[in-house]
Backbone:
């Protein structure tokens, strides 16, 4: 095939959302890839601390005081002392696409030794269709050098819009605490050169470390829940958002891809600390998963907000007996949608928040 | 590389011979095949004697052997062309069957090492599958990886794997229109993954490079879907797509898994996609009906064996697809006939073993 068209930069259509509590030194390594983009930094923890942003980046930064000021009483839905607070960044963004990355994730190398431009790959994934209705054994058929295989119906080859691109990690894998304790030395060294659509009706564990999504298509579903300070659970924020998002994508006919790009995950969090955070989640998950597998959204829910509000109702009705936490969570889900709609009124110019800092 | 202990006497390698001279094919695979027993089935339409090099343990089945089992009266089960290999599945009494097209040779992985496709298929079949929840690091039972955070613990023991679908470097298994449109396209991407295809997700299974657990799903590997102008190139068939989806529906129902990914084989150049497209494009059209049928197929609680499932599916094919095209009537009859044959042959084998 003659010359492949270059991937669009989308520099005015994409925000990079980074939650941080320590520092942003990791941005130096990403500079060649991230500098064209606007950053939204969500500072967790002590708001009186100053987070230094490396020179030359265009960014807005929000700490807890800003979140409280902007959302008022609705700020209760945004987690404190947990990277789940990042979803505040999704809410205040005015862009079509979001890329979120953790501050301990660095540029990885592909098998040829070349630096991986993770953002470019996410953009490729998101701008090409997904194929949730029939599994293609050669994976993403829209990638260069591949296609749909024999037997794949032509009526399904147009695909559906891709709402989410879920990337992976080399080096420290995203294991839960028990697995980390049993295999403290295991590193992910296997580069799997594939992107694929997760089939309709199948759930997966979404990781927020290296994630891109179409905010216009699915943004309101990307609520990262109530975690951290004052909450009985942690490290289930991205999981929760992933299950809600997948169910809603399946209902609305949108696709979710997983696979490339890889980033290099450098820091293994303390497994004992993790175990304390995840402990309840490990049990609750056994109830949560069947709940999501059985969720059915009514035909009348045609927008993400409607789907999400309906989901919140069902969470309250069906998971409240697992733990009172789920009643709180369901209420927070409703608060999140209310806050989202307030900050993102449809059809009007977006509300201005005043934390933009120029280069 | 294999983490499992392969008992050679549990494996049959079934080769459908669509060409008489198997010398170079067998020599290319000697290092991998020679420790196993082979069942070589000669396409009944192929006249002449097969040429097979020495040093292998094998049985050959020809037209006369097929007729003595099936009867020479016209049967709805036709074992010619690519479907001749199903006769090998029928007469085998091993647990695992690996089947590779006779125009494929061993491929090299991304490190330049020759891939033992048989060992990889057996590893896939002997390690659990995980169809109920997608693991983002793919097969969690592979060395160097595991279940990721968020994977429910109750689902981590997995289920038995019924089918292992391998892939192809060089000439990928595209359909004729696709290959005709991109005549130079070759698959050079080695994807180092095996993954379980989730429950209720359908896929197009390619018969070019597969392995399966005969005890679990043998009766579901039905040689039933024969195009009117089916030919001797994969572009002119969809029999494997049909049997593969039967197996997937049945695995989903009985709680077994289907894996896809490694191993790769190197598929040699053969045939002309444009010529095949001119000759046979019905298959492509029929997929539009076939896929939704399998996607919506639900089996009853009472169907507890693969045989039961096939019979129920055959009835559904007859009821829902037969009105659309006579090929489906033949498929339904062939499925029923196949189960009968399977029962007769397997009981004969166990009687003679007694």
Residues:
């Amino acid at each position: 095939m003659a010359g492949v068209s270059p991937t669009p930069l989308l520099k005015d259509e994409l925000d990079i959302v980074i939650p941080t509590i320590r520092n942003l030194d990791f941005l130096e390594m990403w500079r060649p890839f991230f500098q064209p983009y606007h950053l939204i930094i969500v500072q967790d923890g002590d708001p009186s601390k100053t987070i230094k942003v490396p020179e030359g980046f265009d960014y807005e930064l929000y700490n807890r005081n800003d979140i409280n000021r902007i959302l008022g009483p609705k700020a209760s839905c945004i987690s404190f002392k947990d990277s789940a607070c990042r979803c505040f960044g999704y809410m205040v963004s005015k862009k079509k696409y979001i890329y979120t990355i953790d501050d301990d994730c660095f540029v990885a190398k592909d098998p040829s030794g070349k630096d991986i431009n993770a953002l470019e790959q996410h953009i490729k994934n998101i701008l090409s269709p997904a194929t949730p209705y029939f599994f293609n054994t050669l994976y993403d058929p829209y990638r260069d050098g591949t296609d749909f295989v024999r037997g794949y119906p032509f009526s399904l080859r147009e695909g559906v819009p891709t709402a989410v691109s879920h990337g992976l990690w080399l080096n420290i894998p995203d294991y839960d605490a028990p697995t980390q304790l049993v295999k403290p030395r295991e590193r992910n060294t296997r580069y799997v050169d594939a992107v694929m659509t997760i089939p309709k009706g199948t759930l997966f564990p979404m990781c927020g470390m290296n994630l891109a999504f179409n905010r216009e298509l699915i943004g309101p579903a990307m609520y990262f829940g109530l975690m951290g300070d004052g909450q009985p659970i942690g490290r289930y924020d991205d999981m929760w958002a992933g299950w809600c998002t997948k169910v809603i994508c399946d209902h609305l006919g949108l696709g979710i891809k997983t696979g490339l790009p890889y980033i290099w995950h450098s820091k293994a969090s303390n497994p004992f600390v993790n175990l304390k955070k995840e402990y309840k989640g490990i049990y609750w998950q056994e109830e949560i998963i069947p709940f999501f597998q059985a969720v059915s959204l009514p035909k009348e829910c045609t927008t993400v907000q409607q789907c999400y509000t309906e989901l919140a109702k069902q969470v309250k009705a069906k998971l409240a007996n697992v733990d009172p936490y789920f009643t709180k969570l369901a209420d927070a889900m409703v608060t999140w949608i209310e806050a989202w709609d307030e900050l993102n009124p449809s059809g009007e110019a977006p509300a201005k928040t005043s934390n933009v800092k120029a280069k | 590389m294999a983490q499992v202990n392969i008992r050679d006497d549990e494996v049959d390698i079934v080769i459908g011979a669509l060409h008489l001279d198997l010398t170079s094919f067998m020599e290319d695979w000697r290092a991998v095949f020679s420790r196993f027993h082979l069942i070589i089935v000669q396409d009944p339409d192929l006249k002449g004697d097969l040429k097979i090099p020495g040093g292998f343990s094998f049985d050959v089945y020809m037209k006369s052997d097929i007729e003595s089992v099936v009867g020479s009266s016209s049967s709805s089960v036709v074992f010619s062309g690519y479907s001749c290999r199903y006769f090998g599945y029928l007469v085998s009494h091993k647990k695992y069957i690996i089947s590779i097209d006779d125009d494929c040779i061993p491929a090299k992985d991304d490190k330049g090492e020759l891939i033992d496709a048989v060992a990889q298929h057996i590893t896939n079949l002997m390690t659990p599958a995980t169809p109920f929840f997608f693991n983002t690091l793919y097969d969690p039972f592979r060395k160097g990886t595991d279940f990721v955070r968020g994977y429910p613990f109750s689902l981590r023991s997995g289920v038995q794997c019924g089918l292992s679908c391998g892939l192809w470097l060089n000439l990928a298994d595209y359909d004729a229109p696709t290959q005709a449109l991109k005549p130079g396209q070759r698959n050079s991407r080695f994807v180092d993954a095996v993954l379980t295809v989730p429950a209720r997700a359908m896929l197009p299974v390619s018969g070019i490079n597969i392995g399966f657990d005969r005890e679990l799903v043998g009766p579901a590997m039905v040689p039933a879907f024969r195009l009117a102008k089916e030919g001797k190139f994969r572009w002119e068939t969809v029999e494997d797509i049909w049997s593969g989806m039967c197996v997937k529906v049945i695995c989903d129902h009985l709680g077994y898994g289907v894996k896809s990914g490694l191993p790769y084989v190197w598929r040699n150049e053969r045939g002309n996609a444009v010529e095949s497209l001119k000759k046979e494009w019905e298959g492509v059209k029929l997929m539009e009906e076939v896929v939704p049928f399998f996607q919506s197929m639900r089996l009853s609680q009472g169907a507890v064996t693969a045989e039961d499932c096939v019979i129920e599916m055959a009835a559904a094919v007859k009821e829902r697809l037969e009105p659309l095209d006579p090929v489906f009537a033949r498929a339904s009859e062939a499925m029923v006939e196949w189960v009968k044959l399977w029962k007769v042959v397997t009981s004969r084998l166990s009687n003679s073993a007694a």
